[in-house]
Amino acid sequence: MKNTQKLVLASILAALYNVPAMAATCIPGGTSDSPTLICTPTDSGSINDNRDNLSVTVESGAQIVRATGRPVQLEGSNQTLNNQGLIESGDDDAIRGKGVNLTIDNSGTIRGGDRGIRLQDDADNFTLINRETGKIFAENQAVRLDNDAELENAHITNYGLIQSTDGRAIQSRGPGGTVINYGTLLGGEEVIEARENFTLENHGTIALNGLSWDAGTQTWMNTGATDDEDGVQFASGEANNYGVILGSDDGIDIDEGKVHNHASGVIVSTGSASNPLEGGNGIDVDSLYEPTQGEVRTAGPLTIVNEGYIEGVHAIGTDVASTSEITIENSGTLVGRSGTAIQFAPNQGNSSLQLSGNSEIIGDVIFGAGDDKLIVDGLTSTSGMLSTGIFDGGLGENSVFFNDFSLSNILSFDITDTLIYMSFGIASDELFSGKFTNFSSWTFGTDGSFSTEALARQFMNPSAVPLPAALPLFAFGLFGLWAGRARLLKYSST
Question: Is the pLDDT of residue 43 over 90?
Answer without folding.
Answer: no
